[in-house]
């Protein structure tokens, strides 16, 4: 993990060290070892590159960028990359065995570009964002990995093209105008975080290179193309349920192993759920072979040793820790933490899912942990709940299989009466079969546009002014529809994943921590998207494929847990968030520009809502986000 930045003057004007200086100062925050910038005639007067010297991906082979191709004269690369299919690329590119150990990831990408040109991105497995400058053609080629694991932002104008790993670095460049993206702000005020936008940012002139895309920039044109989609997925057909589980188990070990190839101390999230527990268990096994111990981190508070409520997440966390002889670090969330998070200017430094993660980062930094494994992203595919499976069976006329699954779901114990089983059967048939079959326009008409937030405090005039743009931002609804593969892809292709990945990448890098997500490994995603839908729902169990794959790896109480509710964590976050709302509002009122925010928000209703907040619910979270938006608005109003 390293920060990269650069400028391409399309008008041929030379890029000087002074031009890059302000961007360099921000990227310096990405590590304790400083930055380096390159503006040389060898590369081209109109181009300038820079990067942070701290690289959390390198082991024994530190990279000195930009790298040039030894045979293809005039090709230069600067990259933030970790390539996981190196062995495969060695063979395809015919890399001599004697050169493989010292070949860096950036160099490997450049060799791939020399062979495949723009198609090289489709050959890469890993986490990457890179720029290749072709001096002879005078063009920039930019590529980003399949999920957007590494951040990449850009500004594209007739005179120049600016890119960086960090929005704040972009804004430090004098060529990049600062302007609030009001339509996106309006969407943020009215919707939950699950809207589909993957290209825009809260800065109107700064864009993201979307995941699974590449961008070709010349003096005259810019062409954005997608290279990975559902159409790339091949069907996976194996002889038995056991074969599917075994194949997934092998892929899980492969994904974790290639993410712990580092000399740096390694940590991992642990919530007691199926996803994080699997990653912690596999990583612990692999690290024990290297005489290393994994450090685990939870978003939950310290467990109560006396009068502990039965069935909360601590029981599951401690069961796994006992099995693998590891310790788990817990957090102590305070009102001050909530205020600090929601007072951030998220248009410059993202805050997505940072409330509790900020405390994990602080503890990890104290523990000298520089690599953090996370099980996030599993719900979308590998541990998917089989959304769309039962309604698909109904549409396909597979009545016997549908009836079998509905019966298995309703009879979760022998003590359930026939009346209760019948009632459950009817409810499941209605919720999981009939409701998903309702066409989208009718569903919207009956229930309204989906939003997790029960109320919005946006100024109605501001909402009306951007109504059309907000509707476009909503994209495809994420409610359950027939088709497991299609549902998985809708969730994977939604902007909420990219937002969290970018937020954690940028905030983590500023504290010297690189996040890695084994369950978002492209090989695992393609496998799960290709297997038959029934692998995910079997005999009344959702997430069936993953449960079978982790047999012998996880404690049974985690493996067969039907629902994970992080009760202890939510109890604390509810208390501190409600307590923080008045303080957030008070700090806003102290700003002389507070009343000017009325052009964006209904301040009277917002104030009343804060005064009436008593318990934690979705509306409480919406209030905190609205107050964060109000803080941003104070910085842009006249």
TrEMBL record:
Enzyme nomenclature, EC number: 6.3.5.4
Keywords carried by this UniProt record: Amino-acid biosynthesis, Asparagine biosynthesis, ATP-binding, Glutamine amidotransferase, Nucleotide-binding
GO biological process, one term: asparagine biosynthetic process
Glutamine amidotransferase type-2 domain location: 2-220
Pfam short name (any one): Asn_synthase
Pathway: Amino-acid biosynthesis; L-asparagine biosynthesis; L-asparagine from L-aspartate (L-Gln route): step 1/1
Xref: InterPro entries: Asn_synth_AEB (IPR006426), Asn_synthase (IPR001962), ASN_synthetase/amidase (IPR051786), AsnB_N (IPR033738), GATase_2_dom (IPR017932), Ntn_hydrolases_N (IPR029055), Rossmann-like_a/b/a_fold (IPR014729)
Residues annotated for ATP binding in this entry: 374-375
Binding site residues for L-glutamine: 105
Record GO terms (molecular function): asparagine synthase (glutamine-hydrolyzing) activity; ATP binding
CDD domains, A to Z: AsnB
Reaction(s) catalysed (UniProt annotation): L-aspartate + L-glutamine + ATP + H2O = L-asparagine + L-glutamate + AMP + diphosphate + H(+)
Family stated for the protein in its record: Belongs to the asparagine synthetase family.
Name by which UniProt lists this protein: asparagine synthase (glutamine-hydrolyzing)
Organism (species): Adonisia turfae CCMR0082
């Amino acid at each position: 993990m390293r920060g990269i930045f650069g400028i391409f003057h399309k008008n041929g004007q030379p890029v000087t060290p002074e031009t890059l200086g302000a961007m360099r100062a921000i990227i310096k925050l990405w590590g304790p070892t400083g930055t380096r910038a390159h503006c040389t005639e060898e590369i081209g007067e109109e181009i300038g590159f820079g990067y942070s010297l701290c690289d959390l991906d390198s082991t024994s082979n530190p990279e000195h960028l930009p790298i040039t191709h030894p045979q293809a004269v005039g090709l230069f690369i600067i990259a933030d990359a970790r390539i996981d299919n190196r062995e495969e690329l060695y063979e395809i590119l015919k890399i001599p065995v004697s050169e493989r150990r010292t070949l860096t990831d950036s160099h490997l990408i450049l060799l791939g570009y020399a062979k495949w040109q723009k198609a090289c991105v489709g050959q890469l497995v890993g986490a990457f964002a890179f720029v290749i400058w072709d001096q002879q053609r005078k063009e920039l080629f930019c590529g980003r990995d399949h999920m957007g694991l590494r951040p990449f932002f850009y500004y594209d104008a007739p005179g120049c093209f600016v890119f960086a790993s960090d929005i704040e670095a972009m804004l430090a460049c004098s060529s990049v105008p600062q302007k609030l993206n009001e339509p996106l702000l309006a969407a943020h005020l009215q919707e939950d975080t699950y809207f589909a936008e993957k290209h825009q940012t809260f800065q109107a002139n700064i864009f993201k290179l979307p995941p699974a895309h590449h961008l070709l920039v010349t003096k005259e044109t810019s062409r954005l193309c997608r290279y990975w989609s559902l159409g790339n997925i091949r069907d996976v057909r194996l002889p038995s349920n056991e074969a599917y589980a075994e194949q997934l188990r092998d892929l899980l070990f492969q994904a974790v192993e290639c993410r712990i190839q580092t000399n740096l101390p390694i940590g991992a999230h642990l919530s007691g759920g199926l996803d994080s527990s699997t990653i912690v268990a596999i990583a612990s096994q692999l690290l024990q072979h290297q005489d290393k111990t994994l450090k685990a981190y939870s978003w939950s508070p310290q467990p109560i040793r006396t009068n502990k409520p039965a069935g909360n997440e601590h029981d599951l966390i401690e069961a796994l820790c006992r099995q693998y002889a590891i310790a788990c670090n817990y957090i102590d969330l305070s009102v001050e933490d909530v205020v600090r998070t929601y007072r951030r200017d998220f248009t410059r430094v993202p805050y997505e899912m940072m409330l509790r993660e900020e405390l994990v980062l602080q503890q990890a930094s104290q523990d000298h942990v520089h690599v953090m494994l996370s099980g996030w992203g599993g719900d979308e595919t590998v541990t998917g709940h089989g959304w769309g499976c039962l309604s698909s069976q109904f549409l396909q006329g597979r009545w016997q299989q549908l009836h079998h699954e509905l019966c298995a779901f309703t009879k979760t114990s022998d003590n359930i009466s026939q009346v209760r089983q019948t009632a459950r059967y009817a409810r499941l048939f209605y919720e999981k079969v009939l409701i998903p079959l309702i066409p989208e326009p009718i569903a919207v008409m009956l229930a309204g546009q989906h939003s997790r937030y029960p109320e919005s405090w946006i100024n109605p005039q501001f909402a009306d002014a951007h109504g059309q743009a907000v509707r476009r931002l909503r994209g495809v609804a994420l409610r359950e529809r027939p088709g497991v593969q299609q549902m998985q892809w809708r969730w994977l292709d939604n902007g909420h994943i990219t937002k969290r990945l970018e937020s954690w990448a940028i905030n983590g890098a500023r504290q010297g921590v690189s996040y890695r997500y084994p369950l978002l490994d492209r090989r695992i995603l393609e496998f799960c998207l290709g297997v038959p839908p029934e692998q995910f729902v079997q005999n009344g169990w959702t997430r069936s494929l993953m449960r079978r794959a982790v047999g012998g790896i996880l404690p049974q109480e985690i493996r067969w847990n039907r629902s994970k509710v992080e009760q202890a964590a939510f109890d604390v976050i509810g208390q501190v968030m409600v307590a923080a709302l008045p303080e957030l509002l008070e700090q806003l009122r102290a700003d002389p520009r507070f009343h000017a925010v009325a052009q964006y928000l209904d301040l009277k209703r917002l104030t009343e809502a804060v005064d009436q907040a008593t318990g934690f619910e979705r509306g409480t979270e919406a209030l905190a986000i609205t107050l964060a938006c109000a803080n941003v608005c104070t910085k842009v109003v006249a």
